[in-house]
Write a structure and sequence with these properties.
This protein has 458 residues and is α/β, with parallel strands linked by helices. 53% of the residues lie in helices and 7% in strands. The chain has three domains: 25-133, 2-Layer Sandwich (Nucleotidyltransferase, domain 5); 140-262; 277-433, no CATH class. It has helices at residues 8-11, 56-68, 83-92, 102-106, 117-126, 138-170, 175-178, 185-195, 201-205, 216-222, 229-262, 279-288, 291-301, 313-323, 333-339, 365-375, 383-395, 397-418, 427-448; strands spanning 25-29, 34-38, 49-53, 73-77, 96-100, 347-349, 352-354.
Length: 458
């Protein structure tokens, strides 16, 4: 007897409309000249859309209009820097402001062509389909603005150092061969003497610091040049800009330390960070004059990120200014690592791994800082240094930098979130553990093949 076919039409479920979970939601489409705002639909279901300018009085009027519409939460795209003034005004007014990634919005299907952007944002946000980007508190954002601008000026200063070196190379004055760093004591003394008119290589070599490895005779051989006037003028101007940038950076350092100290809790005012565990790190911090900043960061946060191998004071400042001191937004260290774009990018198709390309969006300021920190561990006699060298030997330096940066991110999360202090076991202990793991793996493989493994008699 043939089976009776089921009526598929009768078994089909009716599609249900999206449920509104946030009825008091609004969406804002940002622009350089005007902002379009969509509030909750009116009682008759008609759209509730208004247009505002971008001046401060208009932004204040926008905030007043949202209050009149009884809006409690707002969604906006992170368009350029146009969102910053409006975000700060709405945040101070007490609105829940969600800064949404434009890519996330584009991935939501069902967009109609007869709906403007602000209405689409309002609809998605009211249905709970948008997720706000991570943004630290207002105090940390202020610190972030200072440190970002300082790091930009530091990068500009590095460019002018290269210009000085180019002018010297064009005159065949190889200061960078005579000393390891032309911005050090000896290098700057030689450059300033050249600007002041000194041309005798022996006199210039006599300006060497007693700690220099090369002798005066070796340095003098590198300081004989052709002294063309156009290159001397370029060198003078580059040095002048370098000095100005150094003064600006010093002003930023003073302002940053003062602001960090203003954020310190009263009970931490008298606390001081313990000295670095290694003499090399203590010497580096003292040489760069970063001890006041390290103490200020410790007083504000209550932890010292520089206790982790590879993390310097500048890196710690970037981490705290970008992420803050509260990691409760990240449920576990895997989500934290993923947010920093340090999770492995494994593309799988039909159950097989396929080559995947890293996109430009996988780079963040924090991940870049951790990558730079990872490169400093290349020759370190620590467990992290041994880990870097093992990965580099097997898969190359680029993978080792990525993997070590990920390891640093995990250690930072454990320290900040759980208070788990970092303890270095040393390179020898790491190599011993790795050798033991290999021995266990090889022994098991040989036993599976029917061999009996016994240690040699001593």
């Amino acid at each position: 007897m043939a089976r009776k076919k089921k009526d598929s039409k009768n078994n089909m479920r009716k599609s249900e409309p999206l449920k509104t979970v946030q009825p008091n939601a609004a969406g804002i489409d940002l622009g350089s000249r005007e902002h379009w705002v969509a509030g909750p639909p009116l009682s008759d279901g008609s759209p509730n859309v208004e247009r505002f300018g971008t001046t401060t009085p208009e932004l204040l009027r926008l905030a007043d209009w949202l209050s009149e519409q009884k809006v409690s939460t707002v969604a906006m795209e992170s368009t350029g820097v146009y969102w910053i003034p409006l975000f700060e005004i709405l945040d101070n007014r007490g609105f829940e402001v969600n800064l949404v990634n434009a890519r996330q919005i584009s991935h939501v299907p069902g967009r109609k062509t007869d709906i403007i952007d602000c209405q689409w944002l309002q609809l998605l946000h009211s249905c709970g389909l948008l997720r706000g980007s991570f943004r630290p508190g207002d105090d940390i954002c202020r610190l972030r603005s200072l440190i970002r601008e300082r790091n930009t000026i530091v990068a500009e200063r590095s460019d002018w150092v290269r210009r000085m070196q180019k002018s010297l190379d064009q005159m065949n004055v190889c200061v960078h061969h005579a000393v390891s760093d032309i911005t050090g004591v000896t290098g700057m003394a030689i450059i300033r003497a050249i600007i002041d008119g000194e041309r005798d290589p022996k006199v210039l070599a006599g300006l060497r610091d007693p700690r220099c490895r090369k002798s005066e005779e070796e340095i003098a051989d590198e300081l004989t040049g052709n002294w063309r006037p156009e290159h001397l003028f370029n060198l003078k101007q580059a040095l002048h800009v370098y000095d100005q940038l150094c003064a600006v950076i010093a002003n930023y350092d003073s302002e940053i330390i003062d602001y960090i100290e203003s954020l310190q809790p009263p009970e931490n005012k008298d606390l001081s960070a313990p000295p670095p565990k290694t003499k090399s790190k203590a010497k580096t911090i003292a040489k760069r004059g970063q001890e006041p900043l390290r103490q200020a960061l410790f007083g504000m946060s209550g932890f010292d990120l520089t206790t982790i191998d590879g993390i310097g004071v500048d890196t710690a400042a970037v981490l705290i200014s970008e992420l803050g001191t509260d990691f409760s937004a990240f449920a576990d260290e895997n989500r934290f690592v993923s947010y920093l774009r340090l999770a492995p990018n494994i593309s799988i198709s039909a159950g097989k791994k396929v080559p995947g390309k890293f996109k430009s969006v996988t780079s963040t300021r924090v991940s870049n800082a951790l990558r730079m920190a990872a490169t400093t561990l290349r020759n370190s006699k620590t467990a992290l240094g041994a880990y870097y060298r093992r990965i580099s030997y097997r898969k190359g330096a680029s993978v080792a930098v990525f993997a070590t940066a990920r390891k640093l991110a995990q250690l930072i999360y454990r320290l900040v979130k759980h208070g788990q202090a970092y303890a270095d076991a040393g390179a020898a202990a790491y190599e011993a553990r790795f050798t033991q793991r290999r021995l266990i793996s090889y022994t098991k493989a040989l036993k599976d093949m029917g061999y009996k493994v016994e240690p040699l008699a001593a």
